TrEMBL record:
Record key words, sorted: Signal
Signal is among the record's keywords: yes
Signal sequence coordinates: 1-19
Signal keyword on record: yes
Lineage: Bacteria, Pseudomonadati, Bacteroidota, Sphingobacteriia, Sphingobacteriales
Organism of this sequence: Paradesertivirga mongoliensis
Protein name: Gliding motility protein GldN
Length: 288
């Protein structure tokens, strides 16, 4: 019996020391060595992700190119992931512009938009001002009388007001690789323009150069309705084209938008016709 006690005594002492190791001061409050992990594993795959570069493209190998503008409506069910409060696309873009990770370019007024959409750089405050309507602040003197006509200041930005994005892309056939693919060039949030109390429609607030934005998008996870472990980044869903959109313009000699020559439901019919024309080009390449 004494031998058994001598054998068990070191084991009990060791267990006692091990049990007290996290809290040697006998305090009622446990000592945290590290910040608590929100989950059961450390999700850092996207945080360290790198952009997969495009395949090299030479002008001599471009057998066909078509400039296409299309719009993504976030109110569509398939596009709701872009408006998720946990990973809203516009919030991500504005945070990156403010921190200097992305550059905002002014939308050209007049001229040829295909040549100067990435020419004029906007400061972060200028880019933010594109979203907020001006508000007149009236000042008063000690007697309560208004001073002057008031001053205009930018109103508060509501990210939920951005419900559309425009995409500028090129559809290219590379004869060297025998590949027909679309390549996104720029992304622009759409804002409603009003003047003299009249609604002048929507136009891009500013443009983001997509090859530059990819380095930020690749580290931002997309929220899914059905699975929290998708592992998809914003770069993935743009490159894999996981979005619903409709065409609003293609390159043409008269530089016309679809709404310049079609109205109502005819605009959608024309957009679908152009979409089919782009797809048929590839089919016709391999048909005999």
């Amino acid at each position: 019996m004494k031998r058994l006690l001598f054998l068990l005594l070191p084991l009990l002492c060791g267990a006692s020391v091990f049990a007290q190791e996290p809290n040697l001061g006998n305090s009622t409050k446990p000592i945290q060595k590290e910040k608590p992990l929100d989950g059961h594993y450390k999700a850092d795959n996207l945080a360290n992700a790198k952009v997969t570069p495009y395949a090299n493209l030479r002008e001599a190998d471009v057998m066909y190119r078509k400039r296409v503008y299309r719009e993504i409506d976030l109110r569509e069910k398939m596009n709701r992931i872009y408006a998720s409060p946990k990973a809203r696309l516009i919030d991500m873009i504005m945070d990156a512009i403010t921190s200097g990770e992305m550059t905002a370019y002014a939308h050209p007024i007049g001229g040829n938009p295909d040549e100067n959409e990435f020419t004029t750089i906007l400061k972060p405050e200028e880019a933010m001002a594109k979203f907020a309507d001006s508000v007149v602040i009236q000042q008063y003197d000690a007697n309560g009388d208004p001073i002057g006509n008031g001053s205009k200041v930018a109103g508060e930005f509501n990210p939920d007001s951005i419900v559309k994005f425009q995409i500028k892309e090129d559809w290219i056939f590379d004869k060297q690789r025998s590949v027909y693919e679309p390549r996104i060039i720029g992304i622009a949030p759409m804002v409603k323009i009003k003047a003299a109390g009249q609604d002048l429609g929507e136009q891009p607030a500013f443009w983001i150069y997509f090859p530059e934005a990819r380095h930020t998008f690749v580290t931002k996870e997309v929220m899914s309705r059905s699975n929290d472990a998708t592992g998809l980044s914003y770069d993935d869903i743009f490159m894999k084209r996981i979005f619903s959109s409709y065409i609003v313009k293609v390159s043409n000699p008269d530089d016309l938008r679809i709404k310049d020559y079609a109205q109502g439901i005819d605009k959608l019919y024309e957009a679908e016709r152009i979409k089919k024309e782009l797809i048929d080009y590839e089919h016709d390449l391999w048909s005999y």
